[in-house]
Write a structure and sequence with these properties.
Blueprint (H helix, E strand, L loop, with lengths): L3 E3 L23 H31 L10 H9 L3 H19 L6 E6 L2 E9 L2 E5 L8 H14 L3 E5 L12 H9 L4 E3 L3 H10 L1 E2 L5 E3 L4 E3 L4 H10 L4 E2 L7 E6 L5 H12 L6 E6 L2 H17 L3 H9 L4 E4 L3 H11 L3 E5 L3 H6 L6 E4 L5 H6 L25 E9 L1 H17 L3 H8 L5
Parallel strand pairs: 1-13, 4-5, 4-9, 5-6, 9-10, 11-12, 11-14, 12-13, 14-15
Antiparallel strand pairs: 2-3, 3-16, 7-8
Bound molecules: nicotinamide-adenine-dinucleotide, L-histidinol and zinc ion.
């Protein structure tokens, strides 16, 4: 069902293989979306709320009067929430808090020389904008994954934006609102896509000039290519987390894997988006054939079969046949998947060899769906190969390390000549003079 890329024997034949080029990312990539989002961001910058209303009508098909969701609507959504969904959200929040609480760093003071210290002080970002997707699916779980690390970091001011949904009175989905209420979030905007990121970056005023949304310092959260493109465009004016775009799963499996489970996991992430990527890397043709047969059966029975089929048959998905697991690890590292499952014998040992992945799911009982909702790990993870250089969302995302330098007179005197020498070597003598001025001879 999904295309095959057969690498077996090719290394032995002396071929040089470019593993990074094997499985391309979906063609509607972030670079090409940049041109579409540039005018959207400019419009929000110049016309504020009026532009947000028009863009929402155009892209979401929803007429909104007020972009900010009233707090009473958040409370109502929570009181009307299905008790089973509430219990599941509470469990998800509790597990996420447990894991993220352990990520909180302490300030560290280093005595560099007698009387000279450098302290690294971890300070939370003051105001953040958290994006919760809501196009093809709605993601109350992404409310949890964004809000929990921000709260654990100690961010004072948290705003959430999510697209308004048709049939819900111009508001985001009620479960999104309920999740916000459960977490104590009161500032929620019914705005999606690139326009939401622009609203966070520039702030937004209404027709009378009143500030409806204040600018934020940092924007985090997953979204489609337009959201990712707006984040890339506005980076610098705002901080951003790693780009978390269309979902990806790679499964590194040998003949010991259960093909029905592998297929189910590939389908589970393909369900997000026709641009989602599902990649199987295996040294077993028998497993590849069995997974393909399972995919045919399971895709036919799954609810979002059209979306899944588009994702699985897109150029961004495929089965890579490798000579052995060592080559499988090299392929997985080059691909740098958002999610990587290891379904092999001695899975922990294989997992320990992986260098590039947003998150690694080890063994048969750790499917990606567990991490999506209730493992305690974060599901906002780098996509598009960004796992080669970036991490998923964590408490650290919301903190800045500030170096606090404190030297006494003797500590400065002891190192003064080195500062002057280096200043002269860079032909910046005023730097040296600033130290010398403190020690007139
Ligand atoms: N990496 C992660 O952590 C993670 C987590 C959850 C979801 N996801 C991914 O997030 C994505 C969510 O995408 P989505 O579309 O469902 O929701 P979304 O909220 O990201 O995007 C919907 C918005 O896109 C805008 N839009 C739609 N078509 C447009 C166009 N032609 N031009 C400009 N703007 C347009 C609309 O304003 C709409 O509000 C999926 O790809 C999913 O795989 C990733
Ligand atoms: N798999 C997504 C991250 O790419 C997260 C998610 C939320 N809900 C279901 N799944
Ligand atoms: Zn998912």
């Amino acid at each position: 069902m999904i295309r095959r890329i057969d690498l077996r024997g090719r290394l032995a034949d002396g071929e040089e293989l470019d593993y990074r080029a094997l499985v391309p990312r979906a063609s509607a990539d972030v670079e090409s979306a940049l041109e579409a989002v540039r005018p959207i961001c400019a419009d929000v910058r110049h016309r504020g709320v009026e532009a947000l209303r028009e863009l929402t009508a155009r892209f979401d098909g929803v007429q909104i009067k007020d972009i900010r969701v009233p707090e009473s609507a958040l409370r109502d959504a929570l009181s009307e929430l299905d008790p089973a969904v509430r219990a599941a959200l509470e469990e998800s929040i509790a597990r996420a808090r447990t894991v993220h609480a352990d990520q909180r760093r302490s300030d560290v003071t280093t005595v560099v020389a007698p009387g000279g210290t450098v302290t690294e002080r971890w300070v939370p970002v003051q105001r953040v904008g958290l994006y919760v997707p809501g196009g093809l699916a709605v993601y109350p779980s992404s409310v949890v994954m964004n809000v929990v690390p921000a709260q654990v970091a100690g961010v004072e001011n948290i705003a959430v934006a999510s697209p308004p949904q048709k049939g819900f009175g111009g508001a985001p989905h009620p479960t999104i609102l309920a999740a916000c209420a459960l977490l104590g979030i009161t500032e929620v905007y019914a705005v999606g896509g690139a326009q939401a990121i622009a609203m966070f970056a520039y702030g937004a005023r209404d027709d009378a000039g009143a500030q409806v949304c204040s600018p934020v310092d940092l924007v985090t959260g997953p979204g489609n290519v337009y959201v990712a493109a707006a984040k890339r465009l506005l980076k610098g004016l705002i901080g951003i987390d790693a780009e978390a775009g269309p979902t990806e799963i790679a499964v590194l499996a040998d003949e010991s894997a259960n093909p029905a489970h592998v297929a189910a996991d590939l389908i589970s992430q393909a369900e997000h988006d026709p641009l989602a990527a599902s990649v199987l890397v295996t040294d077993s043709t028998e497993l590849a054939d069995a997974v393909d047969a399972e995919l045919k059966l399971q895709v036919a029975a799954t609810k979002h079969a059209d979306r899944v089929l588009s994702a699985l048959t897109g150029e961004q998905s495929g089965t890579v046949l490798v000579d052995d697991l060592a080559q499988g690890v090299a392929v997985a590292d080059a691909y740098a998947a958002e999610h990587l499952e290891i379904q092999t014998r001695d899975a922990p040992a294989v997992a320990a060899r992986i260098r590039n992945a947003g998150a690694v799911f080890v063994g048969p009982w750790s499917p990606v769906s567990l991490g999506d909702y209730a493992a305690g790990s974060n599901h906002v993870l780098p996509t598009g190969g960004c796992a080669r250089h970036s991490s998923g969302l964590s408490v650290q995302t919301f903190l800045r390390g500030i170096h606090v330098v404190e030297y006494g007179q003797e500590a400065l005197r002891a190192v003064a000549s080195h500062v002057e020498t280096l200043a002269d070597a860079e032909d910046l003598p005023a730097h040296g003079a600033a130290v010398r001025a403190r020690f007139p001879s």
